[in-house]
Amino acid sequence: MHSRTDRGQSLRYQPPAADTTVTFFISSIDNFGPRTAPDSAPHPAAPPAVGGAGTAPSTRLGTLGRRLLGAFLAVLALNGIGSAIGVVALQRIGHSASEMVDRRVATERLVADAHRLQAMNAERYKAVALSSEPEVGEILGADIARTQQQYDALLAQLAERLQGTEDAQRVAAVRTAGADFRKACEALIAARDSGLTERIRKVYGEQFVPAAARLLSALGGLSQSQRQAIDAGASEVAALGATGRWALLAFGALSLVLGTLLALWLVRRITRPIALASATADRVAGLDLRQEIQGHGRDETGRMLASLAVMQTALRNLVRRVQALGQTINVASSEIAGGNADLSSRTEETAARLQETAASLEHVTRRVSDAADSAQRTERLASEAAQVAREGNGVVGQVAQTMQQIAASSRRIADITGVIDTIAFQTNILALNAAVESARAGEQGRGFAVVAAEVRSLANRSAEAAREIKHLTTASVQQVEAGAGLAERAGQTMHRVVATIEDTARTMGEIRSHAQSQNEDIAAIHAAMTRLDEMTQQNAALVEESAAAAESLRGQTHDLASLVDRFVLPPVQQQRPGAAAPAIAAPTLPVPQPRLQPQRLAATG
């Protein structure tokens, strides 16, 4: 078995060594890939706004803002061009690398797998042919068939991938060599089945080994062709990378040089005016306003110097006007002091008059208070009289009600008397009827006639008494009705008396209320006069304080004038006629001219 293995050593599969250039290129692509992301490119920042506070940015050519913008845009344009070149180079490199990895490297791997499969089958055929045991053929036959199917699938993929290329002929040569190799394998198996050793050696040496060598050689040539294509792609990628690096370096150097020149130019254009402005500010801080500032240029620095010139002119005008105002305040404070003295004397006189008025109001308040007390007492008496009158009115009402009850009783007595009279009349009629009946009866009815006569006599007397009672009752009813009418008129009179007394009490209450209101109003006037007296006294104190403040104002005005005099101003005649005025007009500060004319208040006697 060892000898057989040694003899078949030349047919064993040797994997092709990886090219160092391809390995380096693939590792370079893996390391370089994340850096080529287009989203990682920095976006150019927006240029800063140009212009001072309160001033709209200038859009004219030649301003500092436009110069800064142009410089930054130039540098950004160069960086953009370099970035674009780098992106294009990276895209080409990525395309070449993708083509090489996806097509050429994959194809080379397919060729290597096909080479490995055929080498394995060659070893298996060799083992089957040289083995004397039939079990070897049965065991390796299935592996040979499975490997042959895999090889046919790989060869079909290679034919599809390399169709229309220069390697298509090599694939055809591989197919031809593969067909010859299969024939040699079949001849080798047939020789083995014959059992003739010489025939096996002859077929193995003359047909099988040359056919296997041609097939593996054809596969090796196809693999070598793919490796050469991979090497060519790697060289192309390396050339593209070198070109991109040099382009980026060139544009980076150009951007650096241009940016440096622009920075030096801008620094020179900015620092000189700023240094002049700083020196001017130092002189102004030293209270020296004599220096003339000349602003040149239309950019922001020129306008800044012009604004400083306007500021210095405004400060000069301000100092001059403060000096003028100090003199005006001095005169005004003197007038205020005189007016305060006059106002103080008149305030004292007003305070004395107010005290007299307050004393008079206090006397009137006492009188009104006494009148209010009297009105209150009168109202109380009127209320008591109204209460007594209401009680009398109630008693008269009760009398009238009693008289009405007596009249009702008299009328009832008259009715009863009428009933008695009717009974007497009917009794008389009955007596007459009894007498008539007794007369008819004769002697038997004589006693009954006597009784009837007595009854008739009694009935007549009863009727007479009833008539007398009726006359008396009628007279009593008339008298009672007359008394009831008098009681009713007396009640009406008492009701009017009560209403009159109540009106009197109500009027006295209103008088008392008005007196109290007058008392409260006079008290309020008295309080107001007292408050006015206090305010007048306070005004007098304020007048004294105002006089002291006016005197203090005079002293402070003197101090202000001494402070303002520390500013060094050029003479007014120094301004040359026809001199260029600043670009911005100095603000005009109005100077108020106070004129105090205190009014003289005439004293009232």
UniProtKB/TrEMBL annotation:
InterPro entries associated with the record: Chemotax_Me-accpt_rcpt, HAMP_dom, HlyB_4HB_MCP, MCP_chemotaxis, MCPsignal_dom, YvaQ-like_sensor
Query: Which Pfam families does this chain map to?
Result: 4HB_MCP_1, HAMP, MCPsignal
Ranges for domain Methyl-accepting transducer come to: 325-554
**In which broad location class does this protein mainly occur, judging by the first location in its UniProt entry?**
membrane
- Which GO molecular function terms does the record list? transmembrane signaling receptor activity
Cellular component per GO? plasma membrane
Instruction: Report what the protein is called.
Output: Methyl-accepting chemotaxis protein
Origin organism of this chain? Paracidovorax konjaci
